[in-house]
Amino acid sequence: MSSGDLLDRVRKLLDRALVETRDPRFRSMLAAARRRVDEPLRVAIAGKVKAGKSTLLNALVGEELAPTDAGECTRIVTWYADGPTYAVTAHLTDGTTEPRPFHRKSGAIDISLGRPADQFDHLEVRLPSSRLRRHTLIDTPGIASLSTDVSLRTMAFLEAEGERAAQTDAVIYLLRHMHGSDVRFLESFHGDGLANGTPVNAVGVLSRADEIGGCRLDAMTAASRVADRYASDERLRHLCPVVVPVAGLLGAAGATLREDEFRVLADVAGEPMTDLVEVLLTADRFAASGAGRGRVLDRLGLFGVRLSVRLIREGAVGDSADLARALTEHSGIDRLREVFAAQFVGRSEVLKARSALAVLDECLDPNSALAADAEQIRASAHEFVELRLLHLLRSGRLPGTQEQLAEMDLLLGGGGGAAHSRLGLPADAPPSRIAAAARAALARWQTLAEHPFSARELRTAARAAARSCEGILAAGAATPAGK
Fold first, then answer.
1. Quick count: other Cβ atoms within 10 Å of Cβ 58?
2. Cα 21 vs. chain centroid, distance in angstroms?
3. What is the pLDDT of residues 398-430, one digit of tens each?
4. Hey, CA dihedral for 289, 292, 297, 300, is it positive or negative?
5. What gap in Å lies between CA 249 and CA 297, rounded to an integer?
6. Pairing state of beta strands 108-111 and 102-105?
7. Distance CA 337, CA 42 (A)
8. Greatest CA span in the chain, whole angstroms?
9. Does the pLDDT of residue 85 top 80, yes or no?
10. pLDDT tens digits, 146-204
11. Which residues, including other chains, have CB under 8 Å from residue 352's CB and lie 6 or more apart?
12. Which of 96, 275, 369, 405 has its CA 20 to 30 A from that of 61?
């Protein structure tokens, strides 16, 4: 079954449930779920206060949108979605909506709330954006805030039940220094591994990575080592198996760098080395050393300033466009976009189907024929079988050698749903190579599934891995060998 077939089955089940359900509250939930099936994937950005959530959102969209200060709007869940023009709609806790006026303040959208923050369920910001056509990004208030009600808004949104079930399909979780509260949050988001979180709908970001190592020029290298250590941590591995180091300020600046900012940095790069060492020693010294430098520091951070000055001084970049590309390259944002595409966008239909089934679970009589059909979809769809097995695998509950489990993780889509990703091949692998690798993997896993000495759990998982290989071949992603 393809993802499209799965989502089509879920659509039909939602349509039947709408016809047969009389309770107006459940009908409203089902109608919203039916609309959402055809909407972009919803991805929340979560983390502690000052983790860099709004800065990361700006970097992902490629535009200064979300305010990064501690204003009232940062206390409200805010959705950023594609639209024909800029518009802001307030969704209030009493169920009503109203348009809200706004203006741009230092690039960010500054919304006039007109009422206390606790009267808002969420804000919806629409803007023309090609990067938001396939997914809606949701900026959430900080977890572990000094204000208890601010933290509760995020927890209520992401752990929602009843009428608020399945508000988000996936989450990008920002870590700075791993704490027990980070693990507890991810555990609560995952639930049973299928009804809420799954091994492929949570991605970790080691945020503000440029600040690791005191903003030295090797900061991102050091951050990569820390991210690898987090990703291998037993507490995190089955909850958030991918952790990407990202310097959000660099990513946002790379997308929006202005010519006047480049000129400020070029002037600094032209100073004598003895003066330059003194100026770049601390953030305060740089900000006080000349006009416009404080604003550039706010935009790039001390690491970004030091990196830019070095690149300009060494002749590696010649203008603002060159520098913007270099900042983007060093920021880690491109790697995050790759992971985002593999983990979320590539599985968007499966994740949306999962969210819709969660709503159906809330609305249907568990003894009804509709509930039985929903369970049949969940049990028979190979996409859900893959998610369950990934959850067991990454929880350390599947037997097998390290090599077998690593290959199975890829085949089940742990590194992305594309054929080359499942087979551990480069993105430019030709169809003939993909076909040969799929056939070889199919033979290995069929043999393992039929081997009398294989553990029962491993035989079951091997049959699923073989089915994934068959799917690669049947989907037409590969052509016969030699063609």
1. 28
2. 34
3. 888 889 989 998 898 887 788 998 999 998 999
4. negative
5. 10
6. antiparallel
7. 15
8. 79
9. yes
10. 455 555 566 556 654 444 445 788 889 888 765 556 666 665 555 444 444 455 678 88
11. 7, 36, 37, 41, 169
12. 96
At 370 the pLDDT is 94
Of 410, 259, 398, the closest CA to residue 323 belongs to 259
> Residue 218: beta bridge partners?
none
Would you give the end-to-end CA distance of the chain in angstroms?
A: 26
Rounded Cα distance, 60 and 62, in Å: 6
For residue 481, give the DSSP letter. T
User: How many residues in the chain?
Assistant: 483
In this structure, what token pair is assigned to residue 169? 């399909």
Say how far apart CA 130 and CA 358 lie, in whole Å: 29
The answer, as to whether pTM is greater than 0.85, is no
Show Cβ contacts of residue 43 under 8 Å, excluding neighbours closer than 6 positions: 135, 136, 137, 138, 168, 169, 170, 171, 172, 340, 344
Tokens 């006047």 belong to 260
For CA atoms 333, 335, 336, 337, the dihedral sign is positive
DSSP H helix total and E strand total for the chain: 21, 11
